[in-house]
Structures are given as structure tokens and as C-alpha cells.
């Protein structure tokens, strides 16, 4: 279908009381309607081929945009992980040092308080436990040694006071 040239209204046909910008607006409106009529005529002539081509292009564009978005998300996640690892490494080490210092300070103060009360330290208690274990082992060895069969010594009888009885 060949494009047709729009027919201009005759100058005498337009109302003389209309302002000039109104006539231009009306011409633009009519040109838009003419373009729409041509597009509809072409769409009828080509059928659904144009529509299917647009759908295919839309799908391709959607896939590309989703892939690009996924890449950006992956990059952002990797960057975020890298930042959090660097941040956590910077925070964890100083915190561990502070906790160690606090623990050492607490242990020192508890040890001083126990010493002022006269209680033994853990090291002193451990030494005493080792000594007791060694003594128990020595006693158990001595108890298991065979005794010699020497006659038992008789003790002299305790003197009795006969004079007090009478």
C-alpha cells in the first residue's frame, strides 16, 4: 500500500476565529492519526510475523539483561565477601589480644587475693598431690614386702602396785 499524502484543508474552510497554533495542533493530531492508520494497515498485511519477531527480540533482551544483572550481583557478592573478610581479620585479632590481656589480668588479681587469704596456689596444691602420691606408693611397697619371722619381743609386764590393793 503506497503512502498517501494527507489532504490539507482549504484556507477558506478553516474558521477565521481560530488562533494559528490551534490549526497547527489540529494538523499534528491528524498526522498522528494518519501514521496510526498506516501502521495498522501494515500490521494487517504482515500478520503476526512482526509481533513474533518483537517477542523474540524481547526474550533475547530479557536474557541478556538477566545475565548482566547476575554478573553484577556475583561481582558485588565477591566484593562484599572480600571486604567482610578483611574487616573481620582486622577486628578479630585485636579482640583476641584484648581478651587475652583481660584474662591474664583477672588471673593475676585472683592469685593475689588468694595469696592474701593464705590459700595455696594451684601449683602448690599440685606439688602436694604429687608428694602424697609418692608417699602412698612408698607405703604400699613397704606393706607388700615380706616380713622376717623373728620372734616377737615380749614386753615386760607393767608393774602392779600390790600395796595399794591391800
Q: Which residue ranges are poorly predicted, with pLDDT under 50 across at least 5 consecutive positions?
A: none
Oligomer: single chain
Helix content: over 70%
Give the averaged pLDDT, no decimals: 78
Major sheet attributes: none
Strand share of the residues? Answer: under 5%
The shape, in one word, is rod-shaped
- Alpha-carbon distance between the two ends: 166 Å
What structural class do helix, strand and pairing data support?
Answer: mainly alpha
Domains counted in the coordinates: how many? 1
Give me the number of helical elements.
Answer: 3
Query: Taking Cα atoms only, what radius of gyration do you get, to the nearest Å?
Result: 56 Å
Order of helices and strands: HHH
Secondary structure: number of strands: 0
Write up this protein.
This protein has helices at residues 20-46, 49-117, 122-144. The chain has 166 residues and is mostly helical. The protein has one domain (20-143). The chain starts with 19 loop residues before the first helix and ends in a 22-residue tail after the last helix.
Q: What is this entry, summarized?
A:
The protein is mostly helical and 166 residues long.
Give short descriptive properties of this protein.
166 residues, 3 helices
Sequence-ordered SSE layout with sheet pairings:
Blueprint: H1 20-46, H2 49-117, H3 122-144
